[in-house]
Write a structure and sequence with these properties.
Layout: H1 2-10, H2 16-32, H3 41-93, H4 96-134, H5 151-168, E1 172-179, H6 182-189, H7 191-208, E2 214-219, E3 222-228, H8 232-249, E4 254-260, H9 267-283, E5 289-292, E6 297-300, H10 304-309
Parallel strand pairs: 4-5
Antiparallel strand pairs: 1-3, 1-4, 2-3, 5-6
C-alpha cells in the first residue's frame, strides 16, 4: 500500500508550466501567422495589429496562469518530498504508531493534490478559450468585402465571453450599428458605391476603437462591436461617440442599439436585446443610440462635456 501511495504521488513531478507555455506558443505562433489576403491591405494591417495586441494580452494571461501553476506545483512537490522522507523514517524505525501518523499526513496531502489537479485542468481549458479568441485570423471568420470579422466569428467570440463571464464574472457589452437609408444608396448610386460605403465604415470602426474591442459585419449594412470589460453606460458613450464620428467623417447617419451581458443570458439573447434597441432607434427617427437594460429600451443622450470625459474609445 505504501509503495502504491508513493507511486501515485510521484505522478505530480511533471513540468506542467513548460507544457502550458509550449502549447500557448504553438497556438499563437500558428494563428498570428495567418494573413487575410482577400481583405483590403489597409484593413489587413490594422486588423493584424489588433490581433497581435490581443495575442499579447492572451500571452500575458497564459504567463500568469503558468506562474501560478508553477508556484503551486513547487509547494506540492515540497510537501510530497517531506512525506517521502517521513515514510522512510517510519519504515526504518518500524514503529506502528508512526504509520498512523503517515496515514493522517497522506489524507492531508490528498486535498491539495485534488485542488492542484483541478487547477491544471482549468489552465488547459483557459488555453483553449484564449486560443478560440485568436481564431478570428482565419479566412473562415473574415468578411471578404470589408476585411473585418464575420458573423460566425462574432458568435464564437460572444460564446467565449459568456463562458468567461460564468467563471470570472467578466463584464462586456455589444453594439449593433445600422446604416440609415442604405437601400437608397444602392438603388440611386449603385451597388459599387454601396460596397465602398461599407468598406469606409468598417475602416472607421477599426481605426476608432480600442485594440481589444471586436468589430464584425453582422449582415448587410449592419456591424457589431463587442466591448470587453465595458458596462452598459460606458458602451453607450462609446456608441454615441461613434455615431457622431461616422456622421462627421463619412457623411452618413447610423442607428445604434446597445446591450450588456447579464447573468442567465446567452449569445442569442444578448444580440436580441441589442437588435431591439436598434429597431427602437430606427422607429424613433434614426440617427441615434438606444439601449436595452435587460427589461426595456430607452434613448441615450450625452452632451459634449460628458462625451469628452469618456476615455474608453481611442480616436
Amino acid at each position: 500500500m505504501n509503495n502504491a501511495l508513493l507511486a501515485n504521488l510521484s505522478l505530480w513531478d511533471v513540468q506542467v508550466p513548460t507544457s502550458l507555455a509550449l502549447a500557448a506558443v504553438a497556438v499563437m505562433g500558428y494563428l498570428v501567422g495567418r494573413w487575410r489576403n482577400a481583405a483590403p491591405q489597409n484593413i489587413v494591417a490594422i486588423e493584424s495589429r489588433r490581433e497581435v495586441k490581443r495575442a499579447q494580452l492572451v500571452a500575458k494571461e497564459l504567463e500568469q496562469i503558468a506562474e501560478q501553476v508553477r508556484v503551486n506545483l513547487a509547494q506540492h512537490h515540497a510537501s510530497v518530498a517531506r512525506f517521502k522522507d517521513r515514510v522512510r523514517q517510519v519504515k526504518a524505525g518500524a514503529q506502528s504508531e508512526g504509520w498512523n501518523d503517515i496515514c493522517q499526513e497522506a489524507e492531508g496531502i490528498l486535498g491539495p493534490t485534488l485542488e492542484l489537479a483541478q487547477q491544471i485542468a482549468k489552465a488547459y481549458d483557459e488555453i483553449r478559450q484564449q486560443g478560440n479568441h485568436l481564431m478570428t485570423l482565419t479566412e473562415l471568420r473574415t468578411d471578404p468585402l470589408t476585411g473585418v470579422n464575420n458573423r460566425r466569428a462574432l458568435e464564437e467570440m460572444l460564446s467565449n465571453l459568456f463562458t468567461m463571464r460564468s467563471r470570472y464574472e467578466l463584464t462586456f457589452s455589444v453594439a449593433l450599428i445600422d446604416v440609415d437609408g442604405f437601400r437608397n444608396v444602392n438603388e440611386e448610386e449603385g451597388h459599387a458605391r454601396g460596397d465602398r460605403v461599407l468598406q469606409s465604415l468598417a475602416r472607421l470602426l477599426t481605426d476608432s476603437l480600442r485594440e481589444t474591442d471586436f468589430v464584425a459585419r453582422y449582415g448587410g449594412e449592419e456591424f457589431a462591436v463587442v466591448m470587453p470589460q465595458t458596462p452598459l453606460d460606458g458602451a453607450c458613450r462609446n456608441a454615441e461617440r461613434l455615431r457622431r464620428l461616422i456622421q462627421e467623417r463619412i457623411k452618413l447617419t447610423v442607428s445604434i442599439g446597445v446591450a450588456a451581458a447579464e447573468d442567465g443570458q446567452n449569445t442569442q439573447v444578448l444580440l436580441g436585446h441589442a437588435d431591439q434597441a436598434l429597431q427602437a432607434a430606427k422607429r424613433h427617427g434614426r440617427n441615434q443610440v438606444f439601449r436595452h437594460d435587460g427589461d426595456e429600451t430607452a434613448a441615450v443622450q450625452f452632451d459634449a462635456t460628458m462625451l469628452a470625459k469618456a476615455e474608453t474609445v481611442v480616436i
